[in-house]
Amino acid sequence: MASFGAVRELRKGEVGTRTRVGYSFFIRETGGRTLEITPRQGITEEYLGHAINHTCHPDFQNCKFLHTGVTKDRCGVGQEDEGGVGGSRTSVVFVQATRRVEKEEEFFANYGDSFRFPHGCQCPLCAAQAS
Questions:
Q1: Where are the domains of the chain?
Q2: Most buried one in 20, 42, 51, 79, CB count within 10 A?
Q3: Taking the chain (131 residues) in consecutive chunks of 10 residues, what is each chunk's mean pLDDT?
Q4: DSSP secondary structure of 14-70
Q5: CA distances (Å), 97 to each of 8, 20, 44, 76, in order?
Q6: What is 2-130's CATH number?
Q7: Measured between alpha carbons, how far is residue 17 from residues 39, 66, 119, 120 in Å?
């Protein structure tokens, strides 16, 4: 299991690539509401969700992200009780292997079409298509 730690919803007009960590992503909360969120901090020993690499190429994907649909604060209060993602909320994201992952192999997942890269996707598949 991996977590991104404290997250916040992007403000109206805010661009994910201009946030503190340089990216944002979409999650679907329980009830079907979709939010664009950004982590408040980067990789730490406790929050390793950031360390999963991206690839668009399905042959290189060896894991996927699974969101529980609920964000909770430090006290365990969910968004359905408090009305959405706030400054102290955490979004628990499970990382599930889609095939056997060898020792010291890097993890790769497709972040999805809505992920915003600062300079466009740079995975080998997209870089080759851009050339």
A1: 2-130
A2: 79
A3: 72 84 75 76 77 88 78 54 47 79 89 73 82 73
A4: --GGGSSSS--EEEE-TTS-EEEEEESS---SS--GGGPEE-S-GGG--EEEEEEEE
A5: 27, 29, 21, 27
A6: 2.170.270
A7: 12, 23, 9, 11
